[in-house]
Amino acid sequence: MTPTRVITLLSILTTALGFAQEPVAEEQLDEVIVTSSRIELPFSKNSRSINIITSETIKASAATNVADLLQQVAGVDIRRRGTAGMQADLYIRGGSFDQTLLLIDGIKVDDAQTGHHTMNMALPLEVIERIEIISGPAARVFGQNAFTGAINIVTKKHTDTKVSLATQIGSFGTLNGEVNAGADLEDSNHLVHVSRNTSEGYRHNTDYDNQNYFIKSTFNKNQLPIHLLAAFSERKFGANGFYSTPSATEQYEETQTSLIGFSTKIKSNDWIIKPQIYWRRNQDMYVFLRNDPSVYRNLHITNKIGAEVNASYTSNLGITGFGVDAAKVYLSSNNLGDRDRLMTTLFLEHQFKFFNDKFDVTPGVAMTYFSDFKFHAFPGVDLGYEINEHFKLYGNMGYTYRIPTYTDLYYSDPTTLGSENLDPEEAIAEEIGLKFKTTNFNASIAFFNRDSENLIDYVKNNEEDLWQATNIRELNTKGIDIYANYNFKIGEYTQGLNATYTYLDDEIKDLDLDFSRYSINSLKHHFVTRFTSQFFKNLSHSIIYKYAERTAGESYSVVDASINYTFKSLEFSCIANNIFNTEYTETNLVPMPKGNLLFGVKYNFK
User: Fold this and answer.
1) Where are the alpha helices (DSSP H) in 108-200?
2) Which of 6, 93, 312, 601 is the most exposed place for a label (fewest CB within 10 A)?
């Protein structure tokens, strides 16, 4: 089915069903404080490309996990292997999965072994308040790994005293169950989530068993609140063709990922100080033959222990933000060896305002010491000008980087060899954009360019040689991001229309080598639109259309839909994915499932 026919049918369905969501009002969104920065600013005052997925959008997304949810934002390329986000890689603006940073409540949860494990820590949607997507160079704000952008998952802080039970059943023998409990006490607040998701798989050896445990507590909330965050996720899944070649049908993987962190926020006159400590652990066990692990088995255990203090000071000269982040990483692996690394980063930025506060300039720098890569400094600057109450012009420029993973440095198999002599990948990126907002409509457009060097490629001179990791690639990436959201009312209910589009153009500099593994398969054209509506008190529905065309030439269109009905304390839902049975792959020639359904029921105890 061609995209034109899909759009035509989508228009008919939209007319018939309406448009499903209760989007957050623009005034409310403007008041959201973007927490992924030392200088706290309302969403509308920021001079960067930031997209916020609100809790209302999450409810209307027809998604059951973070990986599927992020696919609904153009410019965010989630390449899934299988269903339910069991294994998915995260890309922003054409960068690799090693070049995008994931944070949870500001805690960096990157994995030194490989970026393949970034999404292991993606939390259940039920505990997420919002998601902040920062596109573009972010090294001066977050440090290493924020090469092309960063995503900050903000968890819920406040909850009424209640308990809810939910279950879902659907295609491929899918069976999900979860329990959520919240308690708002006199001087503390607690949120607990437990869930288990299982499936027989949509094809041979794609079954999975996923367990999630989450606790968010706030103590001493009436004076100096202390926040506790603890999360654990275990995934066991068949990995038919996920890695190696598509013919490797018997692969299997198990991961265990945990995070525990403590944080607080101190306000005193013109000062804001935010300290936090955390520990992230990831364990990955991979076997090439599920029923015979002795043939080939890898076991990696990564621990990261860190502490960070961020602060800002407001004076007559503007707002100064600064911070220090120190972390120690330990790796134990039967393939990569026993490794450790100390990382220390100093951050400094200052926001100046001129012309009656209409023009803001925020220069900053991140200076990092790695015990195995020494010192690196990466400056940048953000600019913004409020033309009037509706238009804001902004731009930014900065150096960005990422250090090699332990897989890049030390991985070895019969055909591939890492290199201990790799240098960090580096880039300089520029962006200019325009934002427009009214009460019911907001939109933005951004043009960006990134010149990267020292990119890691696996190359060889002769066919019989091993593939060798080398800093040899140069790449220019440029493109455009467009975002628009329109809210309107029919009767007493809010309807919404959201559309995002990203265009990418990658130019790889040629090498004088016969053999190279480096390939670009970015989303050259990526368009997503979401229609949401509600015409009756207890009934809402949504339709999501996604069109993707990759650099290599393949393209596909996927349509998802959902409907939700509330009756007293009961909530009923039906989610339909890929309703037109599109045949497509997202990575490694792994075929994605055709049309499938998921039915759910949730009971809320009052």
Assistant:
1) 139-142
2) 601
For 118, other C-beta atoms within 10 Å of its C-beta total: 22
Tell me phi and psi for residue 315, to 5 degrees.
-140, -175
Query: Is the Cβ–Cβ distance between 494 and 485 less than 8 Å?
Result: no
Structural contact between residues 295 and 288, judged by C-beta atoms closer than 8 angstroms: yes
Tokens for 189? 């607040």
CA separation for the pair 243, 208 (Å, rounded): 16
For residue 12, pLDDT beyond 80: no
The model's pTM = 0.92
d(CA 121, CA 382): 30
Q: Which two tokens stand for residue 35?
A: 């927490």
Taking CA atoms, 299 is separated from 106, 206, 338, in Å, by 29, 20, 12
Residue-wise pLDDT for 232-266, tens only, equals 999 999 999 999 888 999 999 999 999 999 999 99
Strands 391-402 and 162-170: unpaired
Q: What are the structural domains of the chain? A: 3-605 (2.40.170.20)
Q: What is the mean pLDDT of residues 580-603?
A: 95
Query: Hunting for tokens 């150096």 — which residue is that?
Result: 399
pLDDT band of 510, cuts 50, 70, 90: confident
Say what percent of the chain tops pLDDT 70: 94
Q: What pLDDT, in 10s, does the model give residues 279-324? A: 999 999 999 999 999 999 999 999 999 999 999 999 999 999 999 9
Name the token pair of 200: 């027989």
Contact indicator for 475, 507 with CB cutoff of 8 Å: yes
Calpha distance 69→80 (Å, rounded): 12
Instruction: Give the SS3 label for residue 187.
Output: coil
